[in-house]
Structure formats: structure tokens, C-alpha cells
Amino acid sequence: MGFALFVLRRILVTIPLLIGISIAAFAIIQAVPGDYVDNWLAVTTAQTGQTLEELKPQAHALRERLGLDRPLPIQYLVWIKNIVFSLDFGHSFVYSQPVQDVIGLRLPRSMAIAITTLIVGQTIGIMLGIFAAVNQYKWGDVAATLVAFLGIVIPKFVLSLVILYFLAFVWHSPYIGALYSPEYQIQDSFSFAKLWNLFLHVWPVLAISIWAGQAYTTRMMRGNLLDVMNAQYIETARAKGLSRGRILFKHAVPNALHPVIMNMGGRFDYMIKGELEIAIVLGIPTLGPLIVNSVAQRDMYIVSAIFLMVAAILVIGNLIADILLALLDPRVRRATVSGGA
Asked: Which residues of 25-53 are buried (b: 16+ CB within 10 A; e: fewer)?
């Protein structure tokens, strides 16, 4: 009952946050002068040669049909209602398609890369942190610390540019700027050959994101574990004659993991932004290049939809991190329930 109440409270807290995010996303649409009808007028006059005066009745009817003549609060309520009940994020000016169709292919790619790098990066960071703490001030600690610091101080876009240079001018790699080679583009069925071909195209994104993602976790895990190993209950466990491995993995590591798990929601944010940054440099067709093109061409429905989706995913990621922390440490959910009572 306590855990269910904790989850319910955390979900209720996220609702006002999601509403605020949706208002900010709607404000992005309104920030740019003009609307869909203005864009339609510009395209239609260029393609048909008709004047604005001739198209004025059609534009008025279109603006009424889309609800663009209504007050902004009403437009917001209609916009958010369409999103919630029919996943309708509006219409793309540039692609002449519903926004959800334009984003539909790219969002899963970005999310798959971000989740993969989060899981692998955090796992490597935790393992390196444990290794560094166990070998404090030895060569293993120095090596793990060096790897972590390099991952922190070297910007991801610099690594992306370096890898891009080697791919293009040194290795003359054909795996640049796409997810698949031409022979796999139209292949719908799954095969290990297609999966391997995908890896050959996206491995720079995975490698850079994982290296950057493990860095902070390594430092955090090392510091947490060293603090826990000096705690009184660890000294008591040693006095009882427990083995070093039992003390480390049964008592010390689970307690040292608490801040790491609590920080995972924020690391997911870091992974998504890192994937977007790297994909822009390498030209991988995920959300990153789409955001840049949409901003440059003022396709604000796509920009606002990406902002809304990514922000909502980050909020949900933080919610999942809180739930995992509560599962690991009952004191968290007890403190939340008693504090809210």
C-alpha cells in the first residue's frame, strides 16, 4: 500500500509539470510570425500565380476550419485535446504531412539510441566506479579516473568531428549520413545482417554517447562507494568476519547505488541531448538534423512537437528513476508518504 501511494503521489506531481511543458510548447508555435494559412498562401501564390486577394476567401475558410481565428486560449485547448485524444500534433509546413508522420520514424531511432547508451553507459560507469574504489590510488584507480575525466572534458561535438574526419578522409567509409546501406533501405524483414549494417552506421553515436555517459557515473560511484566503505556498519560487518566480497556487493554497493539511480533521470536527459548533438554532426537521420532543419525553415509545429515529446519523456524518465530508487530503498517511499500525510 505504501509503495502504491508513493507511485500515485509521484504521478500526480508530474501532471502540473506536463501541463506547463505543453503551454511552453504551444508558445513556441506562436513565437514565430504567421501561421499555417500564411504559409499556405505563400506556397499557393508561388505555385499557381494567383494573387493574395483571389485566395483571400479560401484562406479565410481554411483559417476557420483549422480554428486559427479563435482566441489563443481556445487554440491551445483544441491543440492539446487533439494531441491527447488523437495524437494530432498539427501539420508540417515544409513536409506537407501531419507532424506525427514526420516525427514517427525519427523519434523511435533517437529513443532507441538514447536508451541503449543510457543502459550501457550507466552499467560501465558503475563497474568502473567499483573497480576504481576497490583499487583506490592504484593503477586501476588512475586508469578509470583518466577515462572518466576525458569523457567529461572532451566535448561530444569535437569527438564527432574527429570521428567524421577519419570516417570520410582516412578510412573512406561508406557508412556516413544514413542508418542503412542502399541494399537494406527497402528491406522490411528483420535479419542479423541488417542489424549489423545498422550498427556499422550508428556505432560512432553509440561510442561517443556511452563514453560521455559513463564518465560522471564512474566518478559518482567511486566517491559514493568509498564513503560507504568507511561507514560504521561496514566496520561492524568486517568485525563479524564477513568476507570482503559479501561486504562489498551485499552491503556497500547497494547503498552506494542510491545517488546513481536517483541521478539516472538526469542522465537520460544528457543522453538524449548528446544523441541529438552527435547526430547533427554525423548527419544520422534522427531527431537532431530534423530539429535544425525545422528551426531554419520555421516549421514550428515540428519544433514544438519535438520539444513536447522529449520533455515529456524526460519527465517520465525521472519518474521511473524515482520509482526504481523507492524499490531499492524503502526509506524513500516511507519518507515521501509520511511527509505528505
From this structure: bbebbeeeeebbbebbbeebeeeeeeeee
| pLDDT tens column, 156-215 | 889 899 999 998 899 888 888 888 888 887 777 778 888 898 888 899 999 998 998 888
Residue 130, pLDDT > 90, answer yes
To the question of domain 105-296 being in CATH 3.40.50.360, the answer is no
The pTM is what? 0.78
At residue 157, what is the residue type?
F
Mean pLDDT of all residues belonging to the chain? 84
**Biggest alpha carbon distance in the chain?**
91
Nearest to 148, CA basis, from 173, 121, 109, 175: 121
Q: Which amino acid is at 110?
A: S
Round to whole Å and give the CA distance between 239 and 241: 5
Give the closest residue to 82 by CA, choosing from 98, 94, 64. 98
Indicate if the pLDDT at residue 17 is higher than 50: yes
- Distance between CA atoms of 324 and 258, rounded to whole angstroms? 9
Q: How far apart are CA 299 and CA 292, in angstroms?
A: 10
Contact 67, 35 (CB under 8 A): no
Let me know: does 322 contact 265? Beta carbons within 8 Å. yes
Instruction: Report the C-alpha gap between 49 and 316 in whole angstroms.
Output: 49
47: alpha, beta or left? (left if phi > 0; alpha if psi -120 to 50): alpha
- Grid coordinates of 337: 508518504
Q: How far is CA 308 from the centre of its chain?
A: 12
What pLDDT digit, counting tens, does each position of 244-264 carry? 888 888 889 988 888 887 777
At residue 222, the pLDDT reads 93
